[in-house]
Amino acid sequence: METKIKSKALQEFQEVTKTLVNPAIQDWRDQGGKVVGCYCSYVPEEVITAAGFLPFRIRATGSTETELADACLSSINCSFSRHSLDLGLRGEYAFLEGVLWVNSCDHVRRIYDHWKRKIDTPYLRLLSLPKKTTEPQVEWYRQEIAMFKESLESHVGMQITEERLWEAIKLHNETRRLQRQLYELRKREKPPITGAETLSVMVAGTAMPKERYNQLLRELLDEISQSDGHADYRARLMIVGGILDDPAYIEVIEDQGGLVVTDSLCFGSRLMWKDIDEGAGDSLTALARYYIAERPHCPRMFGDQPRRSAFILDMIRDFKVDGVISERLVFCDNWTGEQFMMGEDLKEKGIPFLKLDREYVMAGAGQLRTRVQAFLETLGR
Amino acid sequence: MVANEKELERYRQERDWFKYLCSLLEQDPSELSQLSSEVTKVTIERYEEIIRCAEEDKPFIMGYFCAVPEIYEAMGLPWYMIMASPFLAASAPYLLDDIDAAVAMGLGTDWCTACRLTLYYIEAGLTPKPNALIGLIHPCDAGNMLHQAVARNQNWRDVPVFALDPPYFEDQRGIDYYAKEIKRMIAFIEEHTGHKLDIDRLREVCQESNKQYELWLEYAQLRRAVPCPHGWAMGGGQCFGVCQVMAVGKPSGTAWMRKLVDHTEKMVKEKKGPVPKEKIRYFWFDLLPFGWIFEFLPWLEEEWGAVLVMDMFGYTPYTPIDTKNEDTMFKGLAKRNLYESPMIRQARGIADYFTTDIRRVVEDYKIDCVIWPGHMGHKDGSASTGIMRETCRDLGVPYIHIGLDLFDKRYTTPEQCKDKMSQFFATMGLG
Q1: Which whole-number Å values give the CA distances from A156 to A52, A169, A171, A265, in the listed order?
Q2: Closest-CA residue to A99 (of A326, A108, B262, B319)
Q3: Cα A61 to chain centroid, rounded
Q4: How sure is the predictor about A74, in pLDDT bands with cuts at 50, 70 and 90?
Q5: Is the Cβ pair A341, B177 closer than 8 Å?
Q6: DSSP string, A192-209
């Protein structure tokens, strides 16, 4: 699908998404700034920002092989875990001052175990993330974040004050608000931005300083809110899944005529659909409440499935979605279960649903093309 | 609500299979067969208890060995595990057909087969519906998703669900938090079953189960002997079944454990083991391949003189529960269930448990090689294979990662496993 956007901002976002160490990171480091990698969207990045570091979401962009990681993991571990660990073992993540995990899934939590044994990074920490979303878990995670903050303070040698935390929360909330504005434009009958372009914008938000990102995103919003949109699509699609950070995957879908107008992805709407409550009394409680109780969740959160399902159904209604495509990394148990439940829920509502398996590094574009074409035909488009 | 016939049909078939097994065991006068027959009788009683509850509309729950069964026992509440069937030989006649049916249902092929089968049984209406469900959201992702899918199932949506939230690291804060989760679970069970917890009764159960675990430890230590007194056919699985599932805190379970210890002591004194000449002592670091066990483990003994000296479910360093007061009891239960239960202990948290267990077992049990079966569902364990290999290398003990499905013998066939093991033993100069 051809772009309608001429903005330099979008080009910069796309550059950032295509590379690991992008120019914005390079500038940050040249000015003496330090970068901290995060393995999951449940890491409270606001604390990293408040410490004066740049949070950077770990990807495996550019990875082509997994030989080093294969000696640590096994063939039944997902390709994201193998590629990202491999990059770490090859020294591609040597620019990181620290890496943070939560116990997100069985594959990624083991990368922590290998990283601490094999890769020399100054600061490593795994936060114990609850699997339920009620008040005792909010309190547990508040304590986890407090301990993380203390440990980061002693690593940096400075105090992370309430004032700095609130500044960081406001900055990250501003990013979320701007991203939601972008999604708002996609509700139009002629959305001005494609799904692939949107994913570039979203991924870039995890890989560059927030101030610069917000400025560029404002520029992009100014341009596209006035522009003509895409009218030549066969169907409006929603994409649902886990760690999809490669816009090329969505490009293949959109090249068949299915315009991706919204999503529930790790790098998509789940990052920003809610704000952290700026009116809460205590910043750590506000952070814990956001991450445990308020943000849209991924399947690992027990007891939340009806809410996740409702989130998708609301999206389908609001974005006038014709069909849902769910993608899953092979060997991902969380998304196997979620795809099964989602399929049943959507069947009950009569909403067309396509279930796809994929590898982290884009492969099998031909097969994807065929599956999407067939799906669009079943939609009668 | 009284259960429908379909829900109980499979359950009755499994019970009948165990009755048949029991009748065969009773005909064999050997002490080992008699011990096995007693465990089988308890299994049958548990089946009958659940069937009775379902037929007579009496409360029963779905629980887990690592979700504080001491509480269910103290409350006098019958319980069963929805994930049990794939692990029991009674499911063998239809296991492969059931796996195919689960795949056809859209559950894929790379999700843990035990979880796929369990969800299939629920979706197909082949499991008795309990009054309340204690879900398990650790140690693996598949288990977490299974219980979410069960809660979502059209016919089970009216079954109230509770799950204990597991902290990731082992420390006092984790124990305190989990103890509070246990209290929340009790409130949930009381609300939905009408059964109440009596703290004095819980104390009795804990004290009795402490005796069971003490005997289990004694038994585990006897397995250090050369030759090992028992192989794969008697040991961890039965101790686990008695102490953590079938006779939790019951004097009958303690009596069985005592008999097992007595019998084993005799075996050690007589220097007897499961094979005429023990040549290889191996540590099987996982569950046993229940779906096709008879096609593989006896062969290791017969062909190679290879004896399973310890396995994941046999090696679990339990701490006795301090029954001084309510607080110490709950914290003890938290520690036991969260940090000491087999598989939960190794798979729930950081990979260090894999290394410490290997080190202890290899050194204490004179192990010649470590076998990581690499069940296709155990993603976290297989993601630790490099760490296990390096630990074994440090210890100078050969390590093998097979890569199999504990339930589906078509994944890696028994013949392929045998070939792999033969090559491994030969290359390592074992046997």
Answers
A1: 9, 19, 21, 33
A2: A108
A3: 14
A4: very high
A5: no
A6: SS-HHHHHHHHHHTTSS-
Nearest CA in chain A to B138: A131
Q: What is the DSSP string of B102-162?
A: HIIIII-SSS-HHHHHHHHHHHTT-SPPPSEEEE---S-HHHHHHHHHHHHSGGGTTS-EE
Task: Give the tens place of pLDDT for each residue, B381-431.
Answer: 999 999 999 999 999 999 999 999 999 999 999 999 999 999 999 999 998
Same domain, B255 and B185: no
Of A109, A140, A299, the CB nearest to B145: A299
Nearest by CB to B166, from A76, A131, A344: name it. A131
Query: Residue B402 and residue B399: Cα distance in Å, rounded?
Result: 10
A325 close to A237: Cβ distance less than 8 angstroms: yes
For B29: left if phi > 0, alpha if psi spans -120 to 50, otherwise beta; the answer is alpha
Asked if A242 has any chain B CB less than 8 Å from its own CB, the reply is no
**pLDDT for B4:** 78
User: Phi and psi (nearest 5°) for A81?
Assistant: -65, -40
For A79, which residue in chain B has the nearest alpha carbon? B383
**Bridge partner residues of A329 (DSSP):** A358
Q: Are residues B56 and B113 in the same domain?
A: yes
Q: Which residues of A touch B352 (CB under 8 A)?
A: 113
CB contact under 8 A, B382 and A105: no
- Between helix A305-318 and helix B141-152 the angle, nearest 10°, is 70
Whether residue B259 lies within 8 A of chain A, CB to CB, comes out as no
Q: What is the CATH number of the domain that holds B355?
A: 3.40.50.11900
State the pTM of this model. Answer: 0.96
Choosing from B167, B193, B219, the residue where a domain stops is: B193
| Rounded Cα–Cα distance for residues A60 and A244 (Å) | 11
Instruction: Give me the number of domains chain B comprises.
Output: 2
What are the CA-CA distances from residue A171 to residues A40, A164, A168, A175, B118 (Å)? 19, 11, 5, 7, 46
Domain stop point among B171, B193, B215: B193
Residues B143 and B249 in one domain: no
Q: Token pair for residue B229?
A: 């007194």
Same domain for B217 and B175? no
Containing domain of residue B207, as a range? 199-428
Q: Which of B119, B141, B386 sits opposite A73 (nearest CB)?
A: B386
Let me know: does B422 contact B306? Beta carbons within 8 Å: no
pLDDT tens track for A326-376: 999 999 999 999 999 999 999 999 999 999 999 999 988 999 999 999 999
In B, which residues are within 8 Å of A76 by CB distance?
110, 374, 376, 379, 382, 403
pLDDT at B90 over 80: no
Q: Cβ A340–B149 below 8 Å, yes or no? A: yes
The whole-number pLDDT of residue A91 equals 97
Any idea what the CATH number is for the domain that residue B76 is in? 3.40.50.11890
Q: Does B276 touch chain A (CB under 8 A)?
A: no
Dmax (CA) of chain A = 62
Within an 8 Å CB–CB cutoff, is residue A355 touching chain B? yes
Q: Does A114 touch chain B (CB under 8 A)?
A: yes
Q: Is A113 on the interface with B (CB under 8 A)?
A: yes
Both B236 and B325 in one domain: the answer is yes
> Nearest C-alpha of chain B: how many angstroms from A45?
20
Whether the CB of A370 is below 8 Å from some CB of chain B: the reply is no
B61-62 and B132-135 beta bridge pairing:
parallel
Same domain, B342 and B361: yes
* Arithmetic mean of pLDDT over chain A: 97
Each residue of A293-338: pLDDT tens digit?
A: 999 999 999 999 999 999 999 999 999 999 999 999 999 999 999 9
State whether B417 and B322 are in the same domain. yes
Tell me which chain B residues have a C-beta less than 8 angstroms from the C-beta of A111. Answer: 383
